[in-house]
């Protein structure tokens, strides 16, 4: 299946900062472009880290005179010194979160979405093989995949899953799609075919959920390897004759 790639939805005109960019300039960039974060790159374009509004708020919140600094007891260790370092940050390099969580332009939108969810971030710098910045993708861009029509999703289920992967006739399974929810109904020869159909349908771009109404005639998970040959591809060809 051809998944939509991150590169097709990313923005390639990226607002960025360098390690020496002053704190106030970072704030100005975010305000001027109405964004909530940006990547920090070196002169060669390699991504070093990212700055978010949360990082910026660390400085005034823990600045001189705050109640937190006046009453907090010092704690040894690197982890304890990090908030204080950010509170004194004067440049993007001192303020950024590093290393940055990134994706490649060739990654599928589903992969990018999983990366974003796993790291609880709202944007991902898109990099090339040398870790150089080529774009940026946000939650809004990743959600575009769910704008696919139900008809387009159904056609891909039939063409890619049923016909090209399982070698079945287009009408072998009843496929219906409503608001991105795909329902598969009917009877297949093997249990393994059912599992493949469900797994691949879930991976199709734009699918919100899959309703399983499939049954099978043979539980091939319990067959010996030599028996599985008899119920494999050759058997599939016979069923279509």
TrEMBL record:
Q: Which SMART domains does the annotation name? A: CBS (SM00116)
Q: Tell me the domain of life.
A: Bacteria
Enumerate the UniProt keywords alphabetically: CBS domain
Question: What does UniProt give as the signal peptide span?
Answer: none
**Keyword Hydrolase in annotation:** no
The cross-references to Pfam families, in alphabetical order and at most eight, read: BON, CBS
Q: Which residues form the CBS domain?
A: 10-68, 96-152
Q: Where is the BON domain?
A: 150-218
Sorted alphabetically, which CDD domains does this protein's record hold?
CBS_pair_BON_assoc
- Name of this chain's protein: CBS domain-containing protein
